[in-house]
Amino acid sequence: MELKLYNTLAGKKEVFKPIRRGQAGMYACGPTVYNYAHLGNLRAYLFEDVLKRVLLYNGYKVKHVMNVTDVGHLSGDRDMGEDKLEKGARREGKSAWEIAAFYTEAFKKDIAALNILPPDIWCKATDHIKEQIDLIRILEKKGFTYITSDGVYFDTSKFKDYNKLSHLKLEELKEGARVEKNPEKKNPTDFALWKFSPKNTKRQMEWPSPWGTGFPGWHIECSAMAIKYLGKQFDIHCGGIDHVNIHHTNELAQSEAANGKSPWVRFWLHNGFLNIAGGKKMAKSEDNFLTLDKALVKKGIDPLVYRYAALGTHYRKPMEYSEPAVRNAKKGFDHLRNQVRELASGRPGPAEKRIDKKLKEKFLAAVNDDLNTPKALAVVQEAFRSKLKNEDKLAAILDFDRVLGLKLGAAGEDGELPAEIRKLFGDRERARKDLLWTESDRLRKVLETRGYIIEDTKEGTIIRKS
Ligand code: AMP
Ligand code: ZN
Questions:
Q1: What is the pLDDT of residue 348?
Q2: Which whole-number Å values give the CA distances from 367 to 10, 236, 246, 316, 402, in the listed order?
Q3: Which of 209, 270, 411, 415 is most exposed, with minimal Cβ within 10 Å?
Q4: Alpha carbon nearest to ligand 1 atom 2, residue
Q5: What is the reported pTM?
Q6: How does strand 61-68 pair with strand 151-154?
Q7: pLDDT score of 119 more than 50
Q8: CA 255 → CA 129, 139, 161, 232, 262, distances in Å?
Q9: Are 133 and 17 contained in the same domain?
Q10: Is the CB–ligand 1 distance for residue 243 below 6 Å?
């Protein structure tokens, strides 16, 4: 079945065709590690995870590359202001290197908690300074650069179709760029490839270069690392929509200028924002910033509830964060897990691979239509309602979970329920349904002695490790 994806570059949905048969190369702009990722950032990585899982589900071999921005991202997305890492270091009284290492680990923990498959290649900007310098050298040789008192810049007027990703008029892009004034730039949209360390200041992170000691601009790292690991032309590049007009537009311009090949990337995919009430974007620079830990984990809510909530909104649509929305998602997710547990409890052993063809086609049609996860969740409910045998329902649902990533085969965060516990739980469910209270209480106690707690809720019974 065809896989259709909304390609920002084309401005429409297109059938995905990879450059190499059966393989998909995918680059996702990673975190800037000067602080925790917030729920909005994590929405981007959840969308990319679904994209990757859908590619795998369609039989593609996926090479997924993600960078870690540990230098050079200035406080505005443009080239003025302070380096976020150095600023973070000052805030916390640590070195910039310590800040980067700490928040990289925190990020890895967050994505693991959300059951996001780790990239095949993690790459750090500071490990690729040479590649970035080499790329700037090529651009210089080809006449795309100029030097000012504070750095080496890319001359956007030399690149034809600078606006092809944003679909904005050049004037509109220039207007957006005028916010940060730099009188030495030839065009407002020009951007730094290399910044010089300020005179008489020793930065914690700086390197020698042919143009002077300094550090790379933010955009150049993604081009250098994507080209290194995925080639001069590859399939998919993704990130949040805030990246379209500046970061990705600049990545595209400098990469195509250096490679002399177009398109650099065939498919550009972007997720919509996570907003807080009132439609304001959740951002690290605002105080509306909520982490997974604060919004869910500390409240005893399984982080996968956030994954479930994200799946309930199409990735390109705005999504609103609020406490009631999280509570609602929790209800929905608990209910779904209970539905699965009830199916699993009557099951003698692991599900056989008998996946109903029609149902699978419906599920695939949903996810292959630009990752329509709300529809895919509806197909899961259709599976519960179907006339299939319980074990066949379960086989289909667990197969769909390869894309959804909700760990539906597991009893909460501790992994699959052992067969013996599953049997006891099923017996107890039946006893309760038949109103055999003494027996149901006895089984609850047996489960407790084995380390499992049973909770009867409005949505059904929940079992978890004590
Ligand atoms: P950053 O660490 O700021 O470079 O952002 C990491 C990823 O999160 C990028 O793909 C951004 O486009 C994305 N992002 C940032 N804020 C939001 C938000 N409020 N909602 C959705 N995605 C976002
Ligand atoms: Zn990037």
A1: 52
A2: 20, 17, 29, 14, 12
A3: 415
A4: 31
A5: 0.88
A6: unpaired
A7: yes
A8: 16, 9, 13, 8, 9
A9: yes
A10: yes
Please indicate, yes or no, whether residues 171 and 300 belong to a single structural domain of this protein: no
- Confirm or reject: Cβ of 84 under 6 Å from ligand 1: no
Q: Which domain range does residue 184 map to?
A: 4-271
Q: Which ligand is nearest to the CA of 34?
A: 1
| Residue 408: CATH number of its domain | 1.10.730
CB of 30 sitting under 6 A from ligand 1: no
> Number of folded domains in the chain?
2
* Closest by CA position to 453, among listed 442, 438, 464: 464
Return the structure tokens found at 190.
């020009």
Write the pLDDT tens digit of every residue in 362-421: 999 999 999 999 999 999 999 999 999 988 999 999 999 999 999 998 743 334 567 788
**Cβ pair 270, 239 in contact under 8 A:** yes
Q: Is 222 in the pocket of ligand 1 (CB under 6 A)?
A: no
Helices first, then strands: H and E counts in the chain:
15, 16
The SS3 of residue 196 is: strand
Instruction: Examine the domain organization and report whether 115 and 238 are in the same domain.
Output: yes
Whether the CB of 41 sits within 6 Å of ligand 1: yes
Q: Which ligand is nearest to the CA of 249?
A: 2
